[in-house]
Design goal:
The complex is a heterodimer of chains A (473) and B (310). Chain A is mainly alpha-helical. Helices cover 73% and strands 1% of the residues of chain A. Chain A has helices at 3-14, 21-40, 48-61, 66-110, 115-153, 155-169, 176-183, 187-193, 200-209, 219-230, 239-267, 289-324, 332-346, 351-359, 367-379, 398-407, 412-423, 429-439, 442-470; strands at 278-280, 326-327, 330-331. Chain B is 30% helix and 23% strand. Chain B has nine helices and 14 strands. In chain B, helix 1 (11-25) packs across helix 3 (72-94). The chains are: A mainly alpha (473), B alpha+beta (310). Chains A and B meet through helix 1, helix 2, helix 3, helix 6 and strand 1 of A and helix 8, strand 11 and strand 13 of B.
Chain lengths: 473, 310
């Protein structure tokens, strides 16, 4: 038979195949694999474990108990993280800030280094780096292993399973539930986690909206401000509860905004059909502790911490410089705060807060220390913050804190707006850089930066306007 | 011979190629035609110039008496254009883009491809035989005689059929038919026709199709040994704890999604059992081949099953 005839014959035969012969091929592969496997495996009855798994699944995914169980598990993880991180954070702060920083100063003095150089390096660059490490490292060391543990146990796929309907309605991927919960630990890690989403469109939605998950760097701010200002509104025994409820409300608002913005993105710039969602629900199994620790510490904690430190160091330099460099008799910080004050008023905030958010873009952790430093700097308070001008500090005395902030012109409205703005503002530079690395696009990175900012401005401005209207101001 | 790359073909060439495609589409490869036969499907801005171009290229010649005929070369090019169009539709569909916009995308891109590129596209797609609408894709440089399906409106009531083709124009009707889940290769029972509608039984559900849309559906006889429409159900109709055997995946489910489902073990012959559903009803967890997987309702609708109980 000559080649053209053969080709024609092949062509004719191809048209005689049934249309679904690819499926039939998969089918026969499975059948054959099954046949080989069944020859060599022995089964002994149905195990009690299977029944236990079923029961657990019923509890964790039923309409009545599924969501409360989810909220409870999440609350426990966050509570353990926040409470558990206090002690090691304090120890790290003592070591790096209370002990090492004065030591470095003495070293610099004895070596006769100029004051501005030691100030720039030690009070600016070093202090910020030390601050970021002592505030970020302990919670991440606790949160990420707990999170990986839940993943290993098989619980996280159930979370995606429970929430998928909401994401489907928002035109997003069910696995966004996982990246959003991951974002509660750290948004940069949450953005990296979006790799589990195959569809590029839905992955971008997950990346851009991840910032609405309140991250570790913002929980302390929320808790502090809620305790100082909102908790104090309630009668003393209920203060802690009122504070906790308001923080929870902000976190819940974050989730709602994440759904809303996902829905908006899916209708506008990231239009497209919802991709398929199929997720395997693996059996519950005892976790591998060593592997859990390794993956969460190496892959997540150190990775994120390193990026944060790299971005925080120059920020430290900038913070020190704006407080110490003068222009026409005032520091740069003074000019910035004074310049931003009128705009901040409309947002229910203060100029100090806006400046702190601008210079603290590298890490949300240093927002409150920067606010304190700037407030003292502006008000010229005596008796607090004696480390010198342009040096960030924190104080454990709530009454002192409140005294400082009220001297800076803070009211309950400021506290509420700050909590909202802390939820809705541009992601930290670590997260932005990660979004850029993952998406490879400046356009989407810019959208991720400005979308929450727009939400924040609108939200704060309307709250402030309504508040002042009601207060008759 | 046509392998040069048409980088930005002019409006005249596009019009001439549209005319060739209309000819093959209406099965006029071997017969005499006039330009006005096609004016309701294509727009020819400069009729004379288009015909002149085709004559110059040796694609058409004037027929004895009146009208035009395609030359051998013209027939080859016309079939090639159809091949390019259907390959492109397959390409866009497999990329996971929705089915509604396929046609217009392919209409734009087909003028840009030369013979070599069309063949390369076919190779990269693993030489598909049918496009997403169920139409056969002409093989390269061979005589092409498309199978001739029958319009659904003419199919005898009370019998079974296999959907052979769903016309993608006009778009409103196509979207309607798509929404009803009517896709090529779907076995159906034809219940009856009336002035205004055609009634089908698909996987246990009665579907009424407006007569106008039904005219765009073509059907053929069921292949032997295939599933009979009466036994079929959709996976989404299973109740908790109920089990069934997978019969086939709907052709509407394609590309990466189809591969993923096949990888998960949802192949014909697999036993599936509905385990439990999520708090808001969808997705639902199914046990398949020793694993538990969760599928959204829209996916489960695309998986056809046969109940294990008689």
């Amino acid at each position: 038979m000559n080649p053209p005839d053969l080709q024609q014959q092949i062509e004719n035969l191809r048209w005689q195949l049934p249309r679904n012969f690819h499926d039939r091929l998969s089918e026969s592969l499975y059948g054959e694999a099954n046949r080989i496997a069944s020859r060599r495996t022995a089964r002994s009855g149905t195990s009690r474990r299977l029944a236990f798994q079923r029961k657990l699944d019923r509890i964790l995914t039923s309409p009545w108990t599924g969501f409360p169980a989810m909220a409870l598990i999440l609350a426990v993880v966050l509570w353990v993280t926040i409470i558990g991180a206090n002690v090691p954070s304090g120890m790290l702060a003592t070591l790096l800030i209370d002990k090492t920083q004065p030591f470095l100063h003495r070293l610099a003095d004895s070596a006769g280094v100029w004051w501005w150089l030691s100030g720039f390096l030690i009070d600016g660059v070093y202090l910020t780096g030390a601050w970021v490490v002592s505030v970020m490292l302990p919670p991440m060391m606790i949160f990420f292993p707990l999170f990986t543990l839940l993943e290993d146990l098989g619980y996280l796929p159930r979370v995606a399973f429970n929430l998928d309907r909401l994401f489907e309605k928002a035109g997003a991927h069910g696995r966004q539930a996982l990246t959003m919960t991951m974002g509660l630990g750290c948004n940069a890690a949450g953005v990296v986690a979006t790799r589990v989403i195959d569809s590029p469109r839905e992955r971008l939605i997950a990346m851009i909206t991840n910032n609405f998950s309140l991250c570790n760097g913002r929980w302390p701010t929320q808790i502090l401000i809620a305790t100082l200002f909102l908790g104090a509104l309630a009668p003393a025994p209920l203060g802690a509860l009122a504070a906790a409820i308001s923080v929870f409300a902000v976190a819940a608002l974050g989730f709602a905004l994440a759904f809303l913005s996902s829905w908006m993105l899916g209708r506008t710039v990231l239009k497209g059909e919802a991709s398929a969602f199929s997720i395997e629900l693996p059996p519950y199994r005892p976790p591998n502790i060593l592997r859990t620790l390794y993956t969460s510490v190496i892959d997540r904690t150190l990775f994120v911490l390193w990026r944060a430190v790299v971005f925080a160091l120059p920020a430290g330099a900038v913070i020190w410089l704006i407080a110490n460099l003068g222009l026409g008799g005032h520091s740069i910080a003074w000019w910035m705060v004074t310049g931003l004050d009128p705009a901040a008023w409309y947002l229910g905030l203060t100029g100090v807060i806006l400046v702190a958010y601008i210079v603290a873009i590298p890490a949300n952790e240093i927002v409150i220390p920067t606010v304190l430093m700037l407030t003292v700097h502006m008000a010229g308070l005596s008796g607090v913050g004696e480390q010198g001008t342009g040096v960030m500090f924190e104080t454990s005395e709530d009454s002192v804190l409140r005294h400082i902030l009220e001297a800076g012109g803070w009211t309950t409205l400021t506290a509420v707006c700050l909590m909202l703005f802390s939820l809705c503002h541009n992601p930290c530079s670590t997260t932005l850089f990660t979004i850029y690395k993952e998406s490879g696009s400046l356009k989407w990175t810019a959208l991720a930066a400005f979308l929450p900012l727009v939400f924040g401005v609108v939200l704060c401005a309307s709250v402030a306007a309504v508040w002042r209207l009601c207060a008759g101001g | 011979m046509f392998s040069r790359i048409h980088s930005g073909p002019g409006p005249l060439r596009i019009a001439s190629e549209d005319l060739l495609k209309a000819i093959v589409h209406q099965d006029r490869l071997e017969t005499r035609w006039n330009v006005r036969d096609f004016l309701d499907v294509i727009r020819l801005p400069r009729e004379d110039a288009v015909l002149e171009l085709l004559v110059r290229e040796g694609m058409i010649s004037s027929a004895a008496g009146s009208g035009w005929m395609l030359t051998a070369k013209g027939r080859e090019r016309a079939v090639e254009l159809l091949r390019a169009h259907r390959l492109l539709e397959t390409f866009f569909a497999r990329r996971g883009e929705g089915t509604a916009g396929l046609h217009s995308e392919a209409d734009k891109a087909e003028h840009l491809l030369g013979t070599e590129e069309i063949n390369a596209l076919a190779d990269s797609l693993n030489r598909p035989r049918f496009d997403p609408h169920g139409d056969p894709i002409p093989p390269r440089a061979a005589e092409f005689s498309p199978p001739r399906p029958v319009c659904l409106r003419d199919w005898p009531p009370g019998t079974t059929a296999l959907i052979a083709h769903v016309e993608d124009e006009p778009v409103e009707d196509f979207i309607l038919l798509n929404g009803l889940g009517l896709v090529p290769e779907l076995p159906v029972s034809v219940l009856g026709h009336s002035e205004t509608e055609s009634l089908l039984l698909v996987a246990g559900e009665r579907i009424s199709i407006p007569a106008r849309a039904a005219a765009h559906v073509q059907v053929g006889p069921l292949p032997e040994g295939g599933p009979s429409p009466g036994e079929l159900r959709r996976l989404s109709t299973l109740r908790d704890g109920e089990a069934a055997v997978v019969e086939f995946l709907s052709p509407a489910c394609m590309g990466p999604e189809r591969r993923r489902l096949l990888d998960l073990g949802l192949v014909p012959g697999s036993r599936v059992q509905r385990e439990f559903s999520s708090p808001m009803g969808s997705p639902v967890a199914y046990a398949v081949r020793g694993a538990v997987i969760a599928l959204r309702e829209s996916q489960a609708r695309n998986i056809f099953i046969r109940s294990t109980r008689p």
